[in-house]
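Hi there,

I know you've been waiting on this one. I reran it after we fixed the sequence typo, so this is the corrected version. Both the input and the resulting structure follow.
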Amino acid sequence: MKQWEVVIGIETHVQLSTQSKIFSGSSTAFGAEPNVQANAVDLALPGVLPVLNKGAVECAIRFGLAVDGEVAPKSVFARKNYFYPDLPKGYQISQYELPVVVGGKVAIQVGQGDAATEKVITLTRAHLEEDAGKSLHEDFHGKTGIDLNRAGTPLLEIVTEPDMRSSAEAVAYARALHALVRWIGICDGNMQEGSFRCDANVSVRPVGQKEFGTRREIKNLNSFRFLQQAIDYEVQWQIAHIEDGGRVEQATVLFDPDTGETRAMRSKEDAHDYRYFPDPDLLPLLIDRDWVERTRAAMPELPTAKKQRFVADYGLSAYDATTLTASLEVADFYEATVTVAGKAAAKPCANWVMVDLAARLNKDGKELADSPVSAEQLGGLVARIADNTISNNIAKKVFEALWSGEGQSADEIIEKQGLKQITDTGAIEALIDGVLAANAAMVAEFKAGKEKAFNALVGQAMKATKGKANPQQVNELLRKKLG
């Protein structure tokens, strides 16, 4: 049977975090009543002229720097002509031949844990453009309504090379890009509100063939789950269609989340179908080196640099460092935790943030920003484990108490509940003597070679101290007394 290779490229529409639109002063706030945020420019009334939003350009420069692309010293706005009810002008202002950012790359993690590998996805370009309005089909008694609040909203369209070979790689790329645009503050990343939307260009070809197959573009995927489902279905459909003797035609398709299927919407247009030409109302966009360098100076430490620093400064594995730099919020929380706990406790801090805290947030359906346990409180807790004030088991009780708001700090809870670990050797020896005397049968089993009996004796000793004895000391003293 013929083996197939999947080829995927992604175009992402990132809504830029400006307060006003790209060519007018209308608000970009989400959730307003239809058509209340569309002024004369957005409505394309006769005689109006677009004025470029400097903040949108600043966002594009930040992105270009973040992906190590070339910020073009000169770029040009063009008119992309097509006719649709939610496009008031009959054309969309975009960039075509000369985009604001050329090239760039985004690194992704493929796989999990120690088996994870890094792959670099190459970017073709990123260009500025305006969004269209929105057609509303619900609750209109068989008619369609038009909401032009989104018309003119600033977008950065980011286009990759066809570098991805599976839906998993496509999702890994989309997640990495989503984290990056939020990290550098150019997009809020809210997929439910349409701030981050992906179009996936999917084709298949026989393994070993150099030429690409005919691609179909899946439009407007606004969740990572839908992106994966849509690509997986489309790949299966294309392979089955070809193997049944059919031929894939270039087309734009939509994904139906209810059925999990894609369906053709229209034959895919090529660039010449849009009759692009430079917009006569907008001068070329000129970005000098001083502007680029001022923007660079204001950039935060980027994820890749922070990841490398976490490995070098804190001794973390590449996987841990990647997990902790998946978002700026997590990275900042982790560093604030280490600041309190101390650099020597960097690895335990990583474990608490990635495992215990993450699990509790997930269980309660909370975001990190809403965590009842602050970084300072968690750092204080880890510090008490590090200095042997409490054991790991006791620490979990203290964490739950902090989560429930039973104290302002780990120290307060430890003091209030009498949880301080027993580390006095004499006191632990006395307790062990009592346990051995009361469990002669277990002692005999251990001496007969049953290791499980030793674990049971450790459990009895910890129970006698209500879990407050140092487990390592209990183990060492118990073995010593048992010979």
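Quick highlight: Residues 442 and 453 are 5 Å apart (CA to CA).

Best,
R. S.
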